[in-house]
Amino acid sequence: MATGMVMNDAMATMVEANDPGLSSMQHALPIQILMPADITNAVAFLVSDEAKFITGITRALNAGFPVR
Known about the structure:
Elements: E1 2-3, H1 9-16, H2 20-26, H3 36-46, E2 60-61
Parallel strand pairs: 1-2
């Protein structure tokens, strides 16, 4: 799983400090920052029977952030 911005302790510190770099990242696309549950849900899908034919890949989980 290759994730984009995830709300974790480091990200929370940036939010609390009103980091100017965070503002530019947040407003690049009208999407939310990934939450840990988003990653958990994606991994749960990948280990389920529904994903039995998905193998050997690195899956981007970034809500389209690189596509500006």
